[in-house]
Amino acid sequence: MHPIPSKKKIAVFASGAGSNAEKIIQYFKDHQTIEVALIVSNKKEAGVLHIAQENYVPFIVIEKEKFFRGNAYVDELKKAAINFIVLAGFLWKIPSALIDAYPNRIINIHPALLPNYGGKGMYGHFVHESVIANQDKESGITIHYVDEKYDHGNIIFQTKCTITKDDTPETLAQKIHQLEHQYYPAVIEETLLKQ
Q1: Longest dimension (CA), the chain
Q2: What span, in angstroms and rounded, lies between the C-alpha atoms of 77 and 85?
Q3: Domain that holds residue 31
Q4: Inside any domain, residue 2
Q5: Average pLDDT, stretch 103-124?
Q6: Burial tier of 87 (Cβ tally within 10 Å: 0-12, 13-18, 19+)
Q7: Of 127, 157, 171, 192, which is most buried by a Cβ count within 10 Å?
Q8: Number of structural domains, the chain?
């Protein structure tokens, strides 16, 4: 008899509707070695919390003071035996206390081809509006490790989509969402299994 290996537990941090979090939860639902064990949000009315409830995933709502000036909820994450953190539309900068507790075990997805269109304030529609305004011919997604700077850590994966002359920030956002949903769960899996 081989002992069953304990599952690697992911915490998904999200601030909004949670469409990426939902895809990640579904992807790992019956996974042999990885599970989504916690949803973390900084907004008590975020749609992602409904998704957590519907999928019976525990969640916590965090508050700014403790996140940035306290221990960044490291105790709560350790108590939940979290091995890995996935940012899926989480808008707060990750404090160094959390990065130190999870070195090379926090990843983020960005809706553009970094290093372009990254940095403070560059998220969601702001990114797509800038890309369209610059008349770029392509955009895409970047999955990267998180460090102390916005959208800066080592890149794990990028993929592109073509921008047509008819594209608007809204249609580009739809293309990017499709890429996120298609690739993010699999890249999380691959990254985690390598660790």
Answers
A1: 61
A2: 9
A3: 8-194
A4: no
A5: 94
A6: buried
A7: 127
A8: 1
Q: What CATH number does residue 176 fall under?
A: 3.40.50.170
- Segment 144-184, tens digit of pLDDT: 999 988 888 999 999 999 999 999 999 999 999 999 999 99
**DSSP category for residue 2:** P
| 66 Rama sector, left if φ>0, alpha if ψ -120 to 50, beta otherwise | alpha
pLDDT at 192 over 80: yes
* Given 2, 50, 110, 181, the catalytic residue: 110
* Residue 110 annotated as catalytic: yes
How is residue 72 written in tokens? 């960044």
Q: How many angstroms separate the CA atoms of 151 and 115, rounded?
A: 8
Residue 50 φ/ψ region, left for φ over 0, alpha for ψ in the -120 to 50 degree band, beta for the rest:
alpha
